Amino acid sequence: MNASTAAAGPESARRGLVTLSVMLTTIMQALDTTIANVALPHMQGTMGATQDQISWVLTSYIVAAAIFMPLTGFITARWGRKHVFMWSVVGFTLASMLCGAAQSLNQIVLFRLLQGVFGASLVPLSQAVLLDTYPRERHGSAMAMWGVGVMVGPILGPTLGGWLTEYYSWRWVFYINLPFGLLAWFGLAAFVHETPLDRSRRFDLLGFALLSIGIGALQMMLDRGESLAWFASPEVTAEAMLAGLSLYLFIAHIFTHEHPFLEPGLFKDRNFSVGLLFIFTVGVILLATMALLPPFMQNLLGYPVINVGYLLAPRGVGTMIAMFTVGKLSGKVDARRMIFLGLVLTTLSLWEMTRFNTDIGNWDIVRTGITQGLGLGFIFVPLSTVTFSTLAARYRNEGTALFSLMRNIGSSIGISVVITYLAQRTQANHAAFADYINHYNLALRQAVEAGAYTLNTPQGLAAIDAEVTRQAATLAYLQDFRLMMWITLAAIPLLVLLRAPARQATASGVPAAMD
Q: How far apart are CA 391 and CA 270, in angstroms?
């Protein structure tokens, strides 16, 4: 055994332990994006809060994470990536414990805010650590392992959250982070290397302030728009104007300032810029679907919440299968072809969902969920690899933060769009269906003659109206699925803009041909 082979063993073991540690942090943070959603009604009862007040438990976390995520590049340059990573895990874990122990609405909103501040850097730092830990030819496999946490966490969050809330307490939705946090901290302390510091880097306060105000206002607008009737509300209109103005000034600032908060060189890399557009689309599809399916299954199909969680879990299984498959194919198959396959599978699943009705069975939900999970898995991992394949290593901390930020913004926009569209289409469908409720409708006359409905009593008319509302809502959900199908198809032309990364050297050391 030569010296290089002997050294490869410990290094391989260290990489495995680094991967395990950063995956724990990724899963911990990704779970918290959705795990608290199903526990909100129970929190509302405990805190004695209104529906609008309890929504701040979600809003505070989302806004804080969005604002502080772009700060990742600067603080890691000044204080070191390992140092920042470890303190972020400590802060996130302690904030989670405080959330579980909160006794009032003000306390839990404050602690969720702290969770967002400390959790903002966990996903981008975990991605940056893996990209630096593995050689470039193994980035595909590394991103496959990392992607399991990022993609499966939000999908399994409602399932785990529902189970914990049903059989224990909503407080365990937060306490579950303690073992993840402890194991992750010890792994980071023992196996992750520190990065060089750049004490000379200046903090662009104006740039950070403009970006923070822009992102914060955008997230507030998206989160509160539906409940406040969007631009009929002065608050939402003001937030939209503030977001637009701040983001415009920020873009102008980074291209004119000598030491901007985000370096413009990031966006000169074509793969990275196109990758940001792609991950935005993935964010829209991933969480928008998860926002629609639970109420569809509970309100229209009559499933209890625990069954909803079980039936949505196979979506995560499909994602994991796809990611492990991509890890094996990485370096052998063009990443753009795998992304194309993923887009086709995702489109197919959404097309099948446009054919749902109130009589579908469990297998229909599971089958389309697995197909969509496979599609998202085939998109996310190759996209993560090709996005950073040509980006300079010095941009990785900032680049991974922007990558995660665009995914989160896509999710926020996607959820707001589909929920608003659902409400609008339900009203329009109800008005259209109501036109058919008259004495000239043969089907209605036959139903009345058979005794299914009566037109002479308030109870009979109420029953007909309830059925019209149910069918109008069902069609609205299908129209939402169709909208997401078209969004997925619209992303396919972006593949033309992605450059195929150079194939790595073969085992014999001879470089492979360039695409």
A: 9
Tens of pLDDT, residues 259-285: 777 777 778 888 888 888 888 888 887
Could you tell me the sign of the dihedral formed by the alpha carbons of 351, 311, 420, 284, in that order? negative
326-340, 345-359, 421-435, 469-483: segment of lowest average pLDDT: 326-340
Residue 303 CB partners (closer than 8 Å, separation 6+): 297, 311
Residue 453: domain span: 283-503
Contact 221/243 with Cβ under 8 angstroms?
yes
Residue 488 falls inside a structural domain:
yes
The residue-averaged pLDDT of 23-29 equals 80
Q: Is residue 113 part of a domain?
A: no
Q: Average pLDDT, whole number, for the chain? A: 80
Question: CA–CA distance from 207 to each of 27, 54, 203, 274 (Å)?
Answer: 31, 32, 9, 23
Residue 508 has pLDDT above 50, yes or no: no
Q: What is the pLDDT of residues 220-234, one digit of tens each?
A: 888 777 777 788 888
Is 263 inside a domain boundary?
no
Q: Which residues pair with 333 in a beta bridge?
A: 330
Written as six digits, the tokens of 96 are 């989670």
Does residue 373 sit within a domain?
A: yes
| Residue 189 CB-half CA count within 13 A | 11
pLDDT digits (tens, 9 = 90+) for 383-420: 888 888 788 877 777 788 888 888 878 887 887 888 88
Alpha-carbon distance of 56 to 40, in angstroms, equals 10
Q: How far is CA 263 from CA 189, 268, 379, 394, 395, in A?
A: 30, 10, 27, 11, 8
Contact, 54 vs 40, CB < 8 A? Answer: yes
Count up the domains in the chain and report the number. 1
Residue 317 parent element (H or E): helix 305-329
Contact indicator for 202, 259 with CB cutoff of 8 Å: yes
- For residue 333, report the phi and psi dihedrals to the nearest 5 degrees: -125, 140
User: Contact 217/246 with Cβ under 8 angstroms?
Assistant: yes
Find the mean pLDDT for residues 173-177.
Answer: 85
Report which of 330, 65, 90 is spatially closest to residue 216, judged by C-alpha positions. 65
The CA-atom distances, in angstroms, between 377 and each of 14, 149, 339, 382, 411 are: 26, 11, 9, 9, 16
* Alpha-carbon span 384 to 140, nearest angstrom: 8
